[in-house]
## 1
Amino acid sequence: MIFGGQLVGNSEHWVELIVSNPIDQLLALKTWAVVGLSNNSERAAYRVSKLLIEKGHQVIPVHPKAETVHGQQGYAKLSDIPFAVDVVDIFVNSELAGEVVDSAIAIKAKTFWMQLGISDQASAERGAAAGLNVVQDKCLKIEHARFAGGLNLAGFSTGVISSKRNKSI
C-alpha cells in the first residue's frame, strides 16, 4: 500500500493531497478478520466489530468456538477462512500475538492490527518484514472516530472550540 501524496484537480490547477496518517488508508480496507470475537456483547471486540459492519466492512469472527456473530459465520482459526482477508485485527493477549501474526502472514493478509493494550515488538517486526502493515496498541474505534471527525462523539475531549452550548453546563 502506498502512503503519501495523490494529485487531484484539473490540468490547469493541481493540488497534492498528503495523507497525514497511514491508518486512514488502513481503515478503508474492507475485509476484517477479528481474532477473539465472540457473542459476548460486553467485550470490546463485539462493539468494534459492530462498528465495522455499520461502516460497510465485512467482518469475519475468528474464535475457537467458531460462533456466528452479528450474522457473520465464524471460523476457529485464520487458515479456515476460504477467501482473502485484508486485515487481521486481534483482541487476544499480547503473548498470543506471535502465533496470530504467523497465521496472518500465511493467509497473505495486508495488515495486522493489535488493539489498544496489545503490543509485541517481535511480532510487529516479523509482520513488517513479511510485508504486512502493522498497527499496535491502537483502538480501531478511536482511530475511526479520529478519521471521521467524531472523537467527541466517542467520549473524548478534542479541545475544539464550538459555538454549540455544552449541554452538561
## 2
Amino acid sequence: MRGHLPEMKVKMKLIDQITIYENPNPLLVSRQAIFPGVVELPDGQLMAMFAIGQAFDSADQLMHVSKSSDYGRSWSSPRPIHNHHYEPFQQSESFKPLLLNNGILLAVGYVFVRPDAETPIVHPDTFKTLALKNMITNSSDNGQTWKLPRQIDIKGVPLELSGPCIQLASGRIIGAASPFHLNKTGHSGWIIFSDDAGEHWAKLSEFFKSENGEVAAWECRLIEMEPDQIAVVFWAYDTLNQRNLTNHIVFSNDGGKHFSPAVDTYINAQASNLMWLGGDELLTIHSHRETPVGLKVRRVDISGRRFSILEEIDLFSDDKLGSNSEDIRKQFGSLKFGQPSLLRLTNGEVLATCWAFENYQHVIKGFFLEL
C-alpha cells in the first residue's frame, strides 16, 4: 500500500541555499568535490568533510575539511586531512565523520587502490571493481589534525561504507554497509560494530538479504531513535535485471542485532538519508535520478513500522540531472548528484547537504529547512 496520506499539508519551508564548496579557479585547475558529511562540533562550529580530486572518479581524491561558524552560511577554504602519499599505488578516499561522546572525531569509510590514473573503478566489460579497503582515521582537536588513515578488516570483506557510523546511547558504534561487488548474486546489508571507540570492528548482523541475494542494499544510512531502536534506509538495486527498486527501510529494537522484514517506502529513489524527529516521525531525503528527477525531503510517520508520507518538499527538480540506468556501470558513471544528508542545527534549522554537478563542476551544496 502506497505510503502517502491524502491532502498533504506542507509546513516545511526551504528558506535558503548555498554552495559550501566549488572550485574557485576552474580556468586554472580542476578541483571536483563529492561525497560530503557534516557534523556539529563541541564548540558550536560545523565541520564538513568531502573528497576533492581532478575528476569524479579520479585516483587523486583525498578528504578535505571545511568549517563554518555561522550555522553553515559561510565556510572556510577546505584543507586536506593529511599530506601522506600512498605507496606503491594511489588510494582514492571516501570517509564520513562522526563526533563521539568523548569529543573525538571518528571518520570511517573506504579507499579504492588505484594502479594508475586511467584505470576505472569498474571494468567496462567484466564489471569487476578495483580493490577496496575499509579505513578509519580520527581527530582529537576538533578536526584540525587527523591521524594517518589505517585499514580495518571485517571478515575479510570489502564494504561499501559510504555513510557515517552512529554511536548508540549504550556507547557502541555501529555502521551499515553492504559487501561491495557487482556480481549477480551474493548481496546483503551488514551491520558492523565497535565497542572500543573504533579501534576494532566486527560484523553484528545482516539487516537485509533478498531470497536469492540478487538485491543489493547500497548507500545505507542509519539512525538510533529511542535507545536501541534502529532504522536503516537503503538504495535497493536488482542486479539480475539491472534495475533500480524503490527505497526500503528496516527496523531493529535491539541495537541492530535483529531486524524486521524490509518495508517498501514506494519512493522511486536511490541514495537517501534520514533523521529522527521524535516519537514516530522521521525526516528523510531522497535522490531521485529517474524521471521525475530531483532531491526531495519528506516528513514520514513510521508508527506501526509502516512508512506513511506526511509532507514533502523539493530542494531541486531538473530532469537534466538524471542518470543512465541501462546498467549499473553506466549508472555509476553518469551520476550528477547524490549522498544527501540531514543535520538539525542548534538554531532550529535543518541543514541538508549533497554533492551535485553544477556549471560543469562537482560542488558541495547546502539547503536550509524550516520545519
## 3
Amino acid sequence: MKEEVVPILETERLRLRPVNERDLPVIYLLKSEEQVLKYQYVSSKTLDECHEFMIRYRLIDLNEPSYLWAVELAGTMIGSICLWNFTENYKAELGVEILPEYFRQGYMSESAQVVLEYAFAVLGLSEVWAYTHPDNYPARNFLGKLKFNEISTSGSEIILVRTSASN
C-alpha cells in the first residue's frame, strides 16, 4: 500500500481536500450523529473506529482505490464525500455525509457535482453508483437532481446509477 493522492477540488463556495488527522473530531461527529446515521446500515462509531476509518480510506491498494475528501466551507469541515468500492470495469460508489446544521443548503449537491466531474473526466469511470434506504427521500431527491436513476429496489435499499458526466 502507498499513500493515495487525493486532489483538491473547489467549487464557488466549497473546498474539497484530502482528510487529515485534524479532521478526526468531525469524522467522529459524522459517524456518531443520529441524524446522519438514520438511514445508514452502520452503527455509531467510537473515536478509535473513526481513526481506523480515516487511515483505511487514506491508503490505497491498486486493487482497492478510494478517494475521501473533507468538505470545507470557509475553512470549516462540514462533511465528507468519497468515491470507493471501485470495480475492474471502471465503476465506483459515491458516499456523502454532512453535519445536520448544513442539511438542505446545497453543499452536498455542489460537492457531488465536482466529484462526479472528476470521476468521469479524470478517472474515466463509466458508472457511479449510490445506495440509499427506500425511506430516505432527501437522499433520493438529492441523487435524482444529480441525474442518478433508480435501477433496483429491495426491502432495505435502493440502488441508483449515473452512467456519464453528461447524463
## 4
Amino acid sequence: MERLEVTMLGHFDLCVDGRSVLGYLGNSSKTITLLQYLILNRDSVIPCHKLIELFWEGDEIANPENALRTMISRLRSSLAKVDPDLSECLLSENGGYMWRCTSGCEIDVFKFEALCGQVSKAGRLEPETRELYMRILKIYAGDICPSKTNGWLMAKSIYLHSLYLRTILTFLCCLEENKEYEAVIQICQTALNIDQFDENINLKLMGALKETDQKHAAFIHYRNLTDLHYQALGISPPKNIINFYKELIKDNLASKTDISAIQQELNAAFPMDGAFVCDYSIFKEIYQLHVRNQKRSILTMLLAVISINNTGDTPFEPLALDNIARDLLIIIRSSLRKGDMVSRYGPTQFAVMLPITAGVNGYEILSRIVRHSFYGQITSPSVQLRMQVVDIGSAAAGDHNEAQ
C-alpha cells in the first residue's frame, strides 16, 4: 500500500491506491462508526472503557469488553484482506486501541483544518493564499459523516461546519475589498450548497448581485430564501436580510429619475393578477399605513387570519403540510382581487387584508374561499381551515368573526 486516502467530509470512504475499499469492511453500522472514531482520534490510544461507554452505553449486553474485542478483531481481519499494510494502522496498545497514520495516509478532515490554519495566518489575499482558499472549498464537500447522529460526532461536525463558514466569510471579505464581486457570487453559491440558511453568506451574495447590477437576481434570491425559511423553519428570514431587502427596494427606486421607468419597474416587479402576495414584514408595514389612513379613507379594511388545522390523530408530514399551504396560497391569491393582500405568517397560517366599500360583506367573500374553493380541492378529511376576521378600525376592541 503506497497511498491511503480517508474521506469523511460529505461522506465516508477509504481508498487504497485510488481504489475504494469501504465495501470490503462489511455493513455493520457500529463497526464503521467505531473506525471513524478511531480515525478522527488518530495516533491517540482510546481506552477500552471509553469506547464501551460510547458504543455500548444503554445496550443490554453481558460482556461488552468481549464484544469490543470481537469487533476490533473482525475489523482488523477485513482490513488485512484488503491490504496487510492497512491492518497495521489499527493497533492494540496500553489497554486501548488506536489508529496510526502511516506514511502516505491522508485524511481530509485534518487536511482541511491545516489549510484553515494556514489562511488564518495570512494577511493580504496573495495568489498563494487564494489557492489555499480554493483548496478548502474543494475539500469541504459537506458536513462530516452526515448520516451519523452520535453525540461525539455531532460535536465535531458542528465545530468543522463553523470553521468552514468563518473561513469562507473571511475569504469573501477579502474579495469584497478587491471588488471581485463575480468571484464573491461564485464562492457564495458554493458555500450555500453547504449551508443554505447562513445569514452572512446570503447577505454577501445579495450584496455582490447588487454591486454587479443584478438587482433582479437579488430580489429573486431574497424571495426564494424567504420561502425556504417559512417552509423549512416556519419563521421569517433574519432581520438583517429583511433590512437588506428594504434597502434594495429603496435603492432600486432612487436610481430611476424618469417616472415612466419607475412605473415600468413597479409593474414588472410583481404579477398583476389576483391578490398581492408579500413577505410578512412588508405586509406589516402596509397594515400600519392603512391604520394611519383609516380616518381619511372611505374604505373599510378587514384583517383576516386563515389557519390550517389538523383534526386527525396523526401530525402532518412536513412536505404534506407545505403542499397544503402552497395550494391554499394559490387559492387565496386567485380568489381575491388585485387590491387585496396576503402573506404567509407561519407554516400553517396566512394573513389577509381586504379593502372593502360599504355594503360589501368581506367576511362572506373569505368564507366562500373556505367553504367552496379550498374544500373543493383538498379532499383529506383531517384538513380543516379556521378563519378569524376583524375590522381594522375596531381591531383594538378585539371584535372579530370566526368560522371553520
